[in-house]
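REQUEST
  id: r-88c1
  op: predict_structure
  target: TonB-dependent receptor
  payload:
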Amino acid sequence: MKLYQRIFIFLIFILSISLIRAQDTGFSVQGVVQDHTKQGLSGVNIFVENTKIKTQTDQNGNFRMSYKKGEAVLIFSLDGYKKLRRKMNFSGEISPVSIQLVADQAAVEEVIVHGKGKVKALQDGAFTVNAIDVAKLANTTADLNQVLNRTTGIKVRQQGGIGSDYNFSINGMSGKAVKFFIDGVPLEMLGKGVDLSTLPVNMADRVEIYKGVVPIHLSTDAMGGAVNIITPGSSRNYLDAGISVGSFNTQRINLNGQFKDDKTGVILRINSFYNHSDNNYLMKDMKIWNAAKNEYEFRNLKRFNDRYQSVFGMAEVGVENKSWADSFFVGMSQSLFDKQIQTGSNQEVVYGGVKQNGEAYNYFMKYKKANLFNDRLDVNVYAGFSKSVQKATDTLMRKYSWDGSFEPSATSEKGGRSIIMQHEDRLYSQVGATYRITEHHKLIFNYVLDYLKNTTFNQLEERKEDVPPAKMTKQILSMAYQQDFFNKHWTNIFFGKYYSVGLQKMVFDPVTRTDYPAKDNFSNWGYGFATTVRITRELGIKGSFERSYRLVEPQEIFGDGVAVTSNMNLKPETSNNVNVGLYYNHHWGQHAFRIEGAGYIRDTKDFIYTVPNLYNSTFKYENLSNIFTRGLEGEVSYQYKRLLNVLMNVSYNKAYDNTKFANNSEDVVSATYKKDVPNQPWLFGNMNVSIGKDDWLQRDSRVELYYGLQMTEWFYKNWKSYGNPQNIPVIPRQTLHNIGISYSMKNGRYNLAFDVTNLSDALAYDNFKLQKQGRAFYIKFRYLLK
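RESPONSE
  id: r-88c1
  status: 200
  body:
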């Protein structure tokens, strides 16, 4: 009997037992457990009095419990809240109940240390995930990229300052192998002016970073992992406004809020932000020609063509907790950006007039409804349409130097005089459903349709009407079966994903020297599983495996008109991903200690990576036959009351070319075989320490001091096997120090923060050995009304 047949029979056997058990416990109660603000409480323990039957609330405070017909007393308990006893009637007809727990003021400080909220629940789940409570960092001046760059296994490398392109890596996998979402919707739907470097931390409640294996509710072809930004989901009225100013003429403003009309139940939500920075930080030891001395000299010079600004606004209106919908919202957003381009992948090539700007519109609908069909089915629907226009200008026939001087040139700065226009229309829809077979077994479905039409042309030579658009249609169907045993001490998730992409594009024919339309289709099945075992209340292990596919992205094929050139021959990636990990929590008194460790393997075929063009400082995406990646990571955290927090992590990542024979030959061994993939950090770590004190200077206030250390070990910029080993460019070891202080008044209504980044003004590098900014100062004021 084949392995997959054995697995199938085993799953049917487990399912059959569950259904038989369901006949004996077919009478249930269900409801939600909330605090005094109507927020759902996660991890509430619920017991049937005088029995061993128990369950827990989910991340939103919902619960469901089966028992024999009749009345029984349920006990609700959660650290920091008073225990509650409530008599319930178990019957075939279920009417949801609402339970409200009252805070136990004597245990407030204990809850701060021991409480198991949504973040910790995700960390203890089956998937390898970093969950960051961003709400605690809302007073800092950092953007989301800077926050995530401090976490285990994450490395963010930008090509410049605010608004510049960046490389986001999870366990060594980067580029489009990592997908970004906001509330489960691709971040790209909001336009190019919205990304992790421009989003204010105030817009996020928490961030979930899935490594390697991604749960199907995101339903994506992410192969390296995914980042999901969760925005505040409270039904309460609030206003959150902040303004930050700092070095390099940086200004960042955000305004977020929500208003609910009590009579109609209509809710209005608004999110907006504005970013501006000249990004004119100092470039150190730049090579400049001195005509008077007839020789080159090294000088420190400011960046002069790197200004960036962006504006974003989103409004949505809807209702919650209706008989026909738990949540229904419609909305729209608009984003604009305007950026100058100082350099590309090589800082020796300097631009003085290259720039890019664009705008995007997004219209969407969101719908959620739980407990349909005898309280077993939950449904989630999203539909959105976005329209964007981007313009990249390169018309100056000049060659610039870092001092701003230039010489006439026979070509434009990037090699071909152009005004590249990109028009994109995108339709994205997603339907998700969860069906609870029994209390401990459920089926999950998700379907995504993603259609994109891209029209790219040089405005100096062509018209939009004369250029046939390229089209891409992605479809991803995901199915999963989840089982929970021993009161959720052992959880298994088995899943499968069907990937399909259809591509219509123009391909160059070298014989006729013309472009002709061509179609390309790809489809295949991926599959995997995730499991976690909670050995004790404090100790747990987890593991996951996935055979996944990563479909090509529009920017990789069509380019972006500025830094990325097109490659119409790019192929999808495929990878076998393995993750194993463990965690241990320990609490004593008002102390809390947590340690996490994980290992991973990525065996990737047709690996897509970036290849720089040193002549014009652009790059393009190409395939490597086989890349093998393995790594280890660990994190240790300690907390004492609300006084002291210490977090340390380290990540080791080893990726090498596993393609033995080059160009499909059988006897020519590739020069890069078994060599490390260049331009990828292999060892890096972080340490973050914060000390805070409540009611120190005045009542209802808090002072908090922060120190952060970031270390990145040296790594090769180019392939080790190319050129003289003594002259291979190396990106040296980097150690950066950051400090900050914040002061909150009136229970967090008024907040003031001051941060210093790169305190020692160290010479630091980022992607492609591009210099990062030196020491910088930022101050922020935030007003929060709720």
